[in-house]
Write a structure and sequence with these properties.
single chain, 257 residues, alpha/beta, Rossmann fold, 6 helices, 6 strands, 14% strand, binds zinc ion
Length: 257
Amino acid sequence: MNRLVLSLFSGIDLFGKGFVNNNFCVVSAGDKFLGSDIRDFKPPQGFCDGVIGGSPCQDFSRLNRNPKDYSLEMLNQFIRVVTNVKPLWFLHENVVGVPEFVVDGYRIQRFELDLSWFNPIASRRRIFTFGFKCDAPGEYLLNPIIKNNPPTTHRAVTCQDSLSLKEMAQIQGCDFVGELEHFSVKGKKTVIGNAVPLVMSQYLAEIIDLAIYQSVTTPGEKCNCGCGRIVKGKAKHAHQNCRKKASRAALKCDTPV
Ligand SMILES: [Zn+2]
């Protein structure tokens, strides 16, 4: 293992920064606003341990009234790169409305994190899809936290945010706003608002480091909902939200076509 991580759709890459801060080496495939089109990105197989990225999510967001197919196309590009590189693991970030997806040859864990579980200022619900190569030795499983949402003073930061740039940067964990001096205020807000909050990416890098690189695993049974969290005692679900999610999924399966 080489602790090399490929970051896709990296933007200002607070996602990658969380891994850098946990002693990973992160390389970026660039981004659209830097002139890099992911459709032209042809990486060699097996050069890195991990692939991370939050593909554009506008069309999956419930706030969007004019969804187009772009987000789906970009999600498929993420899957294409993972399929070509065949990393040991991958981690995809997106909004709650992102469709469930699988990648051939990977065991999948889909779980939610909310920024408010780390920082009570703002809520930002995000879905993470973690994949681990089926034919790799050992079974690695993340055991991410799950909490109820505390009351917050601000909803998720977006690029149209009324907050000041300074407040936005603080919530997202961007401490290099000064380096973005060539961006307009709107541009700064866009790239900061699109980023994965640093406190979340650091947490994810930490639990990946523990599970895969330090082989610290939590013994126990897996939650039935597919989030992969470890359940306590004889419980079938890690949290009441997992139980709701599992029963919704069961209902879907029972619906006659
Ligand atoms: Zn669960």
